[in-house]
């Protein structure tokens, strides 16, 4: 009986991932890679942020863009994860509020031509929305990675990759796959 339940969980999860794969295949991922590439050509910064599992994806994405997409003899992509500094996040959460932990890191840093990438499974994380709003107000291009149909982030970001799945694990898995795909697309552009 336990084996049947485990098999049900496995097949159900994988079926959900197949649905997510079909969804992202219909979205314009190449445009996200191009937004990052255009910023790279101008020497601009890419700021990436999210909470929980999405914070992990933000860290991974920043590392892959700056190191994994590197081409010999060319400058590296200036990618920064705003989820990486426990000091910044906890001090801002304590001294200002948690809703401002990403936005406040952009103050005095983000400039026109930079890119802000917000990752939120629900698309409704207040701190992600606040940072995207601030980035737009300061002339940065904005990108959202969401699940759950997109939430508020879908309508707020200049470009969004949205999944309808309401399973956090499946959405986080696909966001990680997306960052790998975008990094590969960027690596190809930088190698030319």
Number of strands: 5
The overall pLDDT average reads: 97
User: What general form does the structure show?
Assistant: globular
**Oligomer status:** single chain
Q: Find the structural class using helix and strand composition.
A: alpha/beta
Query: What profile does the largest beta sheet have?
Result: 5 strands, parallel
Q: Could you estimate the helical fraction of the residues in percent?
A: 55-70%
Distance between the termini: 55 Å
Task: Give the SSE string.
Answer: HHEHEHHEHEHEH
Arrangement of strands in the largest sheet? 2-1-3-4-5
Strand content: 5-15%
Figure out the total of helices: 8
Description:
- By secondary structure, the protein is an alpha/beta fold.
- 57% of the residues lie in helices and 14% in strands.
- It contains eight helices and five strands.
- It has a five-stranded parallel β-sheet, sandwiched between helices.
- β1 (45-50), α3 (53-68) and β2 form a beta-alpha-beta unit.
- It is globular.
- The N and C termini lie far apart (55 Å).
């Amino acid at each position: 009986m336990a084996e049947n339940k485990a098999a049900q969980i496995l097949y159900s999860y994988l079926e959900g991932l197949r649905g997510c794969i079909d969804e992202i295949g219909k979205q314009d991922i190449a445009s996200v890679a191009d937004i990052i590439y255009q910023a790279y050509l101008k020497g601009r910064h890419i700021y990436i942020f999210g909470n929980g599992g999405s914070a992990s994806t933000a860290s991974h994405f920043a590392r892959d863009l700056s190191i994994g997409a590197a081409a010999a003899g060319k400058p590296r992509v200036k990618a920064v994860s705003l989820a990486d500094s426990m000091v910044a996040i906890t001090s801002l959460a304590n001294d200002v509020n948690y809703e401002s932990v990403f936005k406040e890191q952009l103050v005095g840093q983000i400039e026109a031509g930079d890119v802000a990438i917000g990752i939120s499974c629900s698309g409704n994380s207040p701190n992600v929305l606040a940072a995207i709003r601030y980035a737009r107000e300061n002339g940065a291009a904005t990108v959202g990675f969401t699940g759950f149909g997109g939430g508020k982030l879908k309508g707020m970001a200049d470009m969004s990759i949205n999944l309808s799945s309401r399973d956090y694990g499946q959405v986080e898995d696909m966001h990680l796959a997306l960052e790998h795909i975008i990094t590969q697309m960027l690596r190809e552009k930088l190698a030319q």
